[in-house]
Design a protein that fits this description.
This protein is of the alpha/beta class and about 170 residues long. The chain has six helices and seven strands; from the N terminus they run E-H-H-E-H-E-H-E-E-E-E-H-H. Strands 4-3-2-1-5-6-7 form a seven-stranded mixed sheet. Helix 4 links the parallel strand 3 and strand 4. The protein is globular, with a radius of gyration of 15 Å. About 35% of the residues are buried.
């Protein structure tokens, strides 16, 4: 694996059709900040997942099809950062969530997740498009475009634009 943009952590599993209401629900947000909302994220799917991820010092969320569907809530990525989610690996993503994740410096990796088990050690190399599980290569997909890798390496689109104020779309 290359050293550029390698993310490591334990796998924390969710299922298919995980919408953004499940990690930043209005049920928790009235009068509460992102920190409080993050404590209850995904409780409907996996009670206590936020505290389990925190007890490991962070981790990688693994989901099935359609992660992040249903809304364009940018707060969803902020909640995941507060939960110390290092990356999200899923079979497919909602388009708006995928873009919000990149814009906010949250690595996302689209691949088959059916063989990944809860707690397995994952190493995700965004530069080469590889996913290792317990030390063995289990997935190779087309790597993310170089422009997206640069945005992720800088922590998101706003930090990129602050560093490159004269950058123009081509």
């Amino acid at each position: 694996m290359s050293n550029q943009l390698v993310i490591q952590g334990s796998a924390f599993l969710l299922g298919d059709d995980v919408n953004t209401d499940l990690n930043c629900s209005n049920k928790y947000s009235p009068g509460q900040g992102v920190d409080d909302v993050a404590k209850h994220a995904f409780d409907q799917l996996s009670p206590g997942i936020a505290s389990r991820i925190a007890s490991f010092g962070g981790g990688i969320l693994v989901a099935g099809k359609h992660f992040g569907i249903n809304s364009s809530r940018e707060q969803a990525t902020h909640v995941l950062h507060k939960m110390k989610v290092r990356a999200v690996v899923a079979q497919s993503f909602g388009r708006q969530f995928f873009r919000n994740a990149i814009n906010n410096g949250l690595p996302v990796f689209e691949c088959d997740t059916m063989t990944i088990l809860e707690g397995q050690a994952l190493a995700l190399d965004l530069s080469s498009g590889t996913l290792h599980c317990d030390g063995s290569l289990i997935q190779k997909v087309p790597p993310l475009p170089a422009e997206i890798l640069v945005i992720l390496s800088m922590g998101g689109l706003l930090p990129f634009l602050k560093k490159h104020p004269d950058w123009k779309f081509v």
